[in-house]
Amino acid sequence: MRAAGHILLWIGFLAAAYCSVMQLEQGDSRWSTIPWPWYGAAMFIGVAGVVMLRRARSEDHADDAKTEAEYSVVQRSLETVSVVVERIAATSDHIPAEVLRSIDDECAEPLSDFADARQALVKRFGMSVYADVMTEFASAERYINRTWSAAADGYVDEVAKSITRASLHLKNARGLLSAAERSA
After folding, report:
1. Selection from 161, 138, 135 nearest residue 149 by Cα
2. Which of 19, 66, 154, 168 is paired with 123 by a 20 to 30 Å CA distance?
3. Which residues make Cβ contacts (< 8 Å) with residue 27, sequence separation at least 6?
C-alpha cells in the first residue's frame, strides 16, 4: 500500500505540474491557460496517494502494538515453561503421574502460546535471533515431549535425563532472548 501511495502521489504531483505549464500564458488571463478538469483530476490522484500513505502509516503503528503484545506473550510463555521444567528437573524422585500432570496442566498452553506468537521475534529482532531462539525452543519442546512419553511409559531415568536437557535448552533460549534485548 505504501508503494502505491507514493506512486499515486508523484503521478498526481507531476501531472498537476504539467497541466499548469502546458500552455503559454496569454497576457492578463493567466488562469485561463490551465486545463482545470485535468488539473483537478491530477490533484485528486495526488490526494488519494497521500490518503494511502497515511493509512499505511497508521497500520504500521497498529502492527507495532500487536508485535509488542505478541512479544510479551513469548516472554511470559518462555518464563512459565522454564519455571515448570526447572521445578520438575529439581525433584529427586520423578513420579511419572506427577510429571505427566505437570506437563499437561502447566506446559501445554504456554508452549502453544509461544509457538503462536513466535513471529514477534522476527519482527522485533530479525531472522538470525529468531532462528537461534527457535532452535533452542524446539529442542526444549522435543525433550519435554520425550519426558512426557518416558513418564507415560514409566521410564524414570529417561524422565530425569530428558527434563534436564529440556531445562538446559530453555535456559539457552532465555539467554539468547536476553542478549537480543540488550543489543536492540
Report:
1. 161
2. 168
3. none
Q: Please calculate the CA angle 110-113-119 and round it to the nearest 5 degrees.
A: 135
Instruction: Give me the CATH code for the 65-183 domain, please.
Output: 1.20.120
Q: Residues for the chain: how many in total?
A: 184
Task: Give the span between the Cα atoms of 11 and 179, in whole angstroms.
Answer: 46
Kindly indicate the confidence band of residue 57, based on its pLDDT and cuts at 50, 70 and 90: confident
Within the chain, residue ranges assigned H as helices are: 2-21, 36-90, 96-102, 108-117, 119-125, 127-153, 156-183
Q: Which amino acid is at 176?
A: L
Amino acid symbol at 112: S
DSSP per-residue letters across 75-92: HHHHHHHHHHHHHHHH-S
Residue 6 has a pLDDT of 87
d(Cα 167, Cα 160) in Å, to the nearest integer? 11
Please give the radius of gyration of the chain, using alpha carbons only, rounded to the nearest integer. Answer: 29
Domain layout of the chain by residue ranges: 2-57, 65-183
pLDDT band for 92, please (50, 70, 90 cuts). Answer: confident
Distance CA 102, CA 85 (A): 9
Cell numbers given for 4: 502505491
Task: Kindly report the backbone phi and psi dihedral angles of residue 92, in degrees, each rounded to the nearest multiple of 5, phi listed first.
Answer: -85, -35
CA–CA separation, 104 vs 166, rounded Å? 15
